[in-house]
Write a structure and sequence with these properties.
The chain has 298 residues and is an alpha/beta fold. The protein is built from seven helices and twelve strands. 27% of the residues lie in helices and 21% in strands.
């Protein structure tokens, strides 16, 4: 499958730095995956702008529009309703010839991590010296992922996970709420993935604890958070526990490509970064997952 994947374009009706009409469409596309934040807002003019982008593609090239937090559901539905070859990708499935794409998008603009590590001193990497914070953040993320994996797979209890992570008694209620939220989202994703093989997940949120999963905002407080992993824990766990060939994601505005521990490097994790636009070739049967660098198609 030859896919055009784009994420975090943040198009604006009044801007002149990204001309939709002048966009070059690569030949031989099988589908287009919009992985959120196509536009920067979700007003009427933004809906029209997003629709003009979707309409740029041929009738035999389906467009799968996964909502981001800037163009959260139900905006993509408003965009694609008038385009017969396009569909909203939130909690949806796109069946291509030889490839199944499962979409997971955003339902609101404001995003808060299910498990905010800054609420729990034992897993807050900011307690480490500045020069050691990235390493501490990676270690904390690995510990959190392992503990949450054991909870969703019923290998341990939330209370035992809290003990393992050193969560203080005063923070246990907040930790339990976070685990419940992760488990609920994990079950929703599992319902989409169950019984499917070699799935490509198209999600606006990046999987937790990947190289490109970092806090991306700017400002004094945000700089204090810059090393923390803030992606979706539930998504990462769903990928680990189901037959997922790869993910294409956005939100973090950081380009990155990671591979898993299975033969052939699966699962593949790709984020094209801010204003990412790339041709991605995916063929699970042949072990193919390749892409052009975003700068090469601009």
């Amino acid at each position: 499958m030859r896919l055009l994947v784009c994420n975090d374009l943040h198009l604006k009706p009044d801007a002149s730095d990204h001309d939709v009409d002048a966009m070059s469409v690569p030949d031989g596309l099988d589908a287009v995956l919009v992985v959120g934040d196509l536009t920067h807002r979700d007003g009427p003019e933004d809906v029209q702008l997003a629709r003009s982008f979707v309409e740029r593609f041929d009738a035999d090239c389906p467009v799968f529009y996964v909502p981001g937090n800037h163009d959260h559901a139900p905006m993509p539905t408003q965009v694609v309703d008038a385009v017969p070859t396009a569909q909203s990708g939130h909690e949806a499935v796109l069946e291509l010839d030889g490839l199944i794409v499962v979409g997971w998008g955003c339902e609101r603009r404001s995003l808060t991590a299910s498990l905010d590590q800054t609420e729990f001193p034992a897993i807050d990497a900011r307690t480490a010296p500045r020069g050691e914070r990235r390493y501490a953040a990676d270690q904390a993320a690995a510990d959190v992922e392992a503990a949450c994996y054991d909870v969703v797979t019923d290998a341990t209890t939330p209370e035992a996970a809290a003990d393992r992570l050193g969560i203080r008694a005063a923070n246990r209620p907040a930790f339990r709420r976070a685990i419940d939220d992760i488990d609920t989202t994990y079950e929703r994703l599992s319902d989409l993935l169950a019984g499917r093989t070699d799935v490509l997940v198209a999600s606006h949120l990046s999987p937790f604890n990947t190289s490109f999963d970092r806090h991306h905002s700017k400002g004094t407080r945000e700089e204090d958070l810059e090393d923390l992993h803030t992606g979706s824990i539930a998504l990462k766990l769903a990928v680990r526990t189901h037959d997922v060939y790869g993910t294409v994601t956005g939100h973090s505005h950081a380009f990155g490509y990671d591979t898993g521990g299975e033969d052939g490097g699966r699962p593949h994790y790709l984020n094209l970064g801010f204003r990412g636009l790339s041709v991605v070739d995916v063929d699970p049967a042949a072990g193919v997952f390749s892409f052009t660098h975003p700068d090469a198609v601009r």
